[in-house]
Amino acid sequence: MDVTSQYDIAAGAAANASEGAAARDCLLVLIGASGYDIDLIHAGKRLAEAVHAVWAAVDVQTSRFRFTPDRDRARRVEILRIAESLGAEAVTLHGTTVATTIAAYARLRQASKILVGSRTRLGWLAVSQYAQLVALKRLSPGIEIIAIAPQSGSAHAPAPVPRKTPSQRVEYFRQRVRHYLSAVAVTAICTVIAFPLSGHVDLINIVMIYTLGAAVAGLLLGRGPSALTAVTNILAFDYFFVPPIFSLEVLDPNYLVTFTAMLVVALIIANLMIAVRERTEAAGAREHHTAALYAITRDLAIARDVNAMVTTAVRHIGEVLQAYTLVLMCDEDGRIIASQIVVARDRRPVVDANVARWVAAKGRRAGMGTRQFPAAPATYLPLQGSHGTIGILVVERADATGIMLSEQQRLLEAMADQLALALERARLAELAHAAQLAAERAILRNTLLASISHDLRTPLSAIAGAGSIVAQNDFSLDIYRRVTLGRLIEDKARDMSDLLTNVLELVRLESGTDVLNRDWHSLSDIVGLAIARHESRLAGWEVSTDVPGDLPLLSVDSNLMVQMLSNLLENAIKYTPPGTRIHISAQQFEGVIRLVVEDTGPGLGVDAPEQLFEKFTRGRLESDIGGVGLGLAICRAVSRLHGGEIRATASPMGGARFEIAVPHDEDPSVLESPSSVA
Fold first, then answer.
1. pTM recorded for the entire structure
2. Whole-number Å distance between alpha carbons of 283 and 279
3. Which of 428, 443, 636, 672 has the most Cβ atoms closer than 10 angstroms to its Cβ?
4. Alpha-carbon distance 142 to 163, whole Å?
5. What is the percentage of the chain residues whose pLDDT exceeds 70?
6. Distance CA 246, CA 259 (A)
7. pLDDT-based confidence at 584, cuts 50/70/90?
């Protein structure tokens, strides 16, 4: 297997070999097996560009990964981050051996090349890497294995990672000592259990007790302590149970075979138990992370506004990662404008304004465990949207180390991505709502102009014509003509005033703020006021009422209720011929009073009566009757402000029927007076 010390030579040779290839190849870069992964990543990028291939940086974590120091774990995470920034796909695999795992993944991805590191200096690591390369070559037939050595004077270095403090190193040493003391204690417990049985059972049963102890040590303590347990078990078995007892001397050579079998079986069982425990822990961690990611995704999907989304994300991240978390929001230009701060656990993380501004401007990670601002106590993750940085997620670990494992890093990134998607969805929803409102305002403005232009132009033309006649010096006006022209000008001006009043009144009613001036009123009085307002115009119509005097008082705005009835009467006057009957009635039902206005005219004139209550909608589009279709819209607004509703149907009398449902409260006579309430 050739080892090349210059990356460009390998990339150039691969490029020449790949000329004319139709499909894009897949290149895998194996990291974590050498101390110069940065150089390996850059070489993989150049090689992938040269052969026009997709490439992935692969980190294989075997059972030995649990003994990897925190610095090396954080370094691998940073290497994967750098590879992603260079266009690679970051992949973390779990398996028994590196060669078997990467070979299986290469076959799955149909990779054509695997790039690995190789040391030039002799040593144990060089021998181990060479054995790994041989195994990888054997397990990957048809796949090109490219082994490269570091360039001389390479300046690439992984991101600085904080070292353990002296107190942390002391605590780690104490923990290891406790494990080894526990390993010796397991042997002591097995001896205490087996010694009373000596002379009553065969020695093979005593061996089983010690084997069980070795299995327990492998399950609970790890490889080193379990190996110590296997050795101390043999020594204890020899000292207490093998003749001569209380001596390590072995007279029967057959016991040497027993001791060897005990050691091998104990080590095998311990390794199997450790592997089972590691697989179980890994599966449990993945299940926990999947459940956490599902939970935050579900809750973010339910949240409707930015505050709820930020609160949800901060709570989940704080609970899962045991961290202090907050979110800094950015404007459309990526500048930090405000912070949505929700404390996870008992305090908020310390925020460095310079680091936050750098992350917002660059859109890259910074802070703890990264190459930028590594001395910062927290990690800063940009929340990327479709048009830039939406916000910044600040996470500070609650423990003293501040270092997150690779699985925790990936979980944090996935949660940050989900939060970014949710915030982007909220921002797009706000933009869509604003655009919809703008479109509706434009449509309303255009409809208003188109609707009132005719009704304003007609009276203005009449006023202008009447005014021009009055202004002529050579035209004599008798008293009859002068009165006729004056009434014409007055009527047309009143029509224009009513039209503008309706428009302004509808805008006021739809605003819904401080509109109602409620008081207790009798419905019969309200009906009487509405009829009196149109008494002169209703002279040619037959008006009848059926409003019982025992109806309860209504807590309403009398002016608006009179205006609503006036609009209905005015519609009847406009759209029914003289001599038509107009009937107003009222009935009381459970909690509701129904007021009905109906006539014997030509009817509604539309197939869908509910459309009549829309703004600028009229029953007859082609008509010489004035109006812009706001009267019934005002009626609906008034009824809804009072908690009721209005609907239009065909009347049994043969014309139109408008039914208003108004809820009524208790009679004020049974309520406590203000003076009686202390």
1. 0.49
2. 6
3. 636
4. 43
5. 76
6. 16
7. very high
Q: How much is the pLDDT for 597?
A: 92
- Out of 60-69, 133-142, 276-285, 475-484, the most confident range is 133-142
Question: Is 187 within 8 Å of 232 (Cβ atoms)?
Answer: yes
197 found inside a domain: yes
Q: Are residues 387 and 527 in the same domain?
A: no
What whole-number distance in Å separates Cα of residue 570 and Cα of residue 537? 9
Q: In the chain, what percentage of residues exceed pLDDT 90?
A: 3
Q: Which residues contact 60 (CB under 8 A, 6 or more apart)?
A: 30, 32, 93, 94, 95, 98, 101, 102
| CB half-sphere exposure, 132, CA atoms < 13 A | 25
User: How many Cβ atoms are within 10 Å of 552's Cβ, its own excluded?
Assistant: 16
Q: Are residues 133 and 199 in the same domain?
A: no
Q: How far apart are CA 235 and CA 231, in angstroms?
A: 6
Q: How far apart are the first and last CA of the chain?
A: 98
CATH classification of the domain holding 17: 3.40.50.620
Does 12 share its domain with 114? Answer: yes
Q: Which residue has the tokens 């709820």?
A: 308
Give me the domain span that covers residue 127.
4-148
Tokens 């926990």 correspond to what residue?
A: 288
Beta strands 519-521; 554-556: pairing state: antiparallel
* CA 176/CA 221 separation, integer angstroms: 9
CB-based burial, 36-45: b 16+ in 10 Å, e otherwise: bbbbbbbbbb
Q: Strand, helix or coil at 673?
A: coil
Residues 593, 537 share a domain = yes
Tens of pLDDT, residues 480-491 = 877 888 888 887
Locate tokens 């180390």: which residue? 401
User: Are 518 and 658 contained in the same domain?
Assistant: yes
Which residue bears the tokens 């925020």?
A: 351
Is there a single domain that holds both residue 524 and residue 654?
yes
The answer to whether residue 613 scores a pLDDT higher than 70 is yes
Going by pLDDT thresholds of 50, 70 and 90, the confidence category of residue 448 is low
> Is 220 within a domain?
yes
Boundary residue ending a domain (382, 414, 429): 429
More confident site: 606 or 543: 543
